[in-house]
Amino acid sequence: MQKTPKALRLHIALFGRTNVGKSTFLNIIAGQDVAITSPVPGTTTDVVEKSMELLPIGPVLFLDTGGLDDDSVLGSERVARAKKTMDRADVVLLVCESGCFGEYEQKILSSAKLKKLPVITIVNKIDLIPVTADFRKKLLAESTGVLECNAQNKNDRERIVDELKDCLKLVLPDEFQKPLRLVGDLVPAKGIIVLIIPIDIEAPKGRLILPQVQTIRSALDNDVMVVVVKENEYAYMLTQLKSPPSLVVCDSQVVDRMVAETPESVPCTTFSILFARLKSDMPILIKGAAAIKQLRSGDRVLIAESCSHHAMEDDIGRVKIPRWLREYTNAELEFDSCAGRDFPENIEDYKLIVQCGGCMNNRAEMLSRLQRADKAGVAITNYGLCISQTQGVLERVIAPLMPNI
Predict the structure, then answer these.
(1) Phi, psi (5° rounding) for residue 63?
(2) Nearest to 16 by CA among 84, 72, 76, 100
(3) 337-362 residues labelled b (16+ CB within 10 A) or e (exposed)
(4) Which of 201, 202, 338, 214 is nearest to 272 (CA)?
(5) What share of the chain is helix, strand, coil (3-state, %, to 5)?
């Protein structure tokens, strides 16, 4: 569980004013000094991440943010980073002190409500100011759970952790109670899934990339047999099977070749499209792919990548997708790119956003980007859907997923 990728963990974000004890609370939950604590305001300068196993919840990722009332020299930047963390959160822990619940706390509640995020209020420092019945009643009306503690009392750790678990179990998002499956619901048990994995200049040396590994694991978890080939051996491999595969999945860069070599009766799709269903909202992304037809010369397109990497000479996001879009639209399009968790504020300046598969993002962050794009009136799609549209095979590769959307 310690090796579970961050994108698959329950993201729990801690918010509150400076010096209410967010970092101290994280430390007592973790049972170790994860974050630096100090009476000096603004000690937490950036988001502190802590992965851990919180049974029976499972693998989680705590996100400790700076205080939202930080008025130090770098305060505005810290506050901005803290607010941005809300985009990644599945659950919000709002840390406050007894009797102190005002403008800053209400802003956090409003932001969480807008994103439909459950909020658990942590009332810290109860050894200094006990919680009154009226104050607790007010908090219960505002949030979905209340936990009272003195986070500096390590002897009380077991109770604090147990109560946090109880609160979390009541507000767990559906995907963590009934996890979405990559291919388990698309292929029958004992079926065969073929994975086409190119080994080119962008393939990491000696290993497979995360989407490929997770697809293999999903198949094995559901008693599905897996055949892995490179694109050059795919057609020959089909002749060696006694019966057709139940599903074929390829890297988006070879989707046109895969479709051309796959019998019409055999369902096929791409890794990126599987992740679009797992991490995002497929109907919105499909609509975004259709909007590619409306692009005209001078339109700006944003390529959004989840991971930071050194762009190769034929990089899929920086080179191939722009080339395919220009060829498909016959238009002189302008392209910008962003990487990691950087996502520009001025997305309304773009006609289209093409997001990568998002294997490094959790579902909450991906849906947040879709929400922002919708609010700005900007079409958004992902790599797999975009490439399939430009290669004229979109309907074929989304067909296997449509009954399950």
Answers:
(1) -125, 105
(2) 100
(3) bbbebebeeebeebbbbbbbbbbbbb
(4) 214
(5) 45, 20, 40
Q: Is residue 271 a contact partner of residue 193, using CB atoms and an 8 Å limit?
A: no
| Helix residue ranges per DSSP H, 209-342 | 210-221, 234-240, 255-261, 271-279, 282-290, 321-329
For residues 267 and 399, the answer to whether their CB atoms sit within 8 Å is yes
Count the alpha carbons within 13 Å of 231 in the hemisphere toward its beta carbon: 16
pLDDT number for residue 22: 94
pTM: 0.79
The pairs formed by 307-310 with CB atoms below 8 angstroms and a separation of 24 or more are 307/339, 307/340, 307/356, 307/360, 308/339, 308/340, 309/339
- The 10 Å Cβ neighbour count of residue 239 is 6
Instruction: Find out whether 373 and 350 touch, Cβ atoms under 8 Å.
Output: no
**pLDDT (tens digit per residue) in 219-235:** 999 999 999 999 999 99
| 7 band by pLDDT with thresholds 50, 70 and 90 | confident
Enumerate residues 6+ apart whose C-beta is below 8 A from 358.
Answer: 7, 275, 276, 279, 280, 306, 365, 366, 382
Average of per-residue pLDDT across 198-204: 75
DSSP H stretches of helix in 222-318? 234-240, 255-261, 271-279, 282-290
Question: Partners of 227 in the beta sheet?
Answer: 194
What is the reported pLDDT for 332?
97
Give the whole-angstrom CA distance, residue 191 versus residue 194.
Answer: 10
Q: Tell me, what's the pLDDT at 79?
A: 64
Contact call for residues 198 and 231 (beta carbons, < 8 A): yes
Residue 100 DSSP label: B
Query: How far apart (Å, rounded) are the C-alpha atoms in residues 258 and 252?
Result: 9
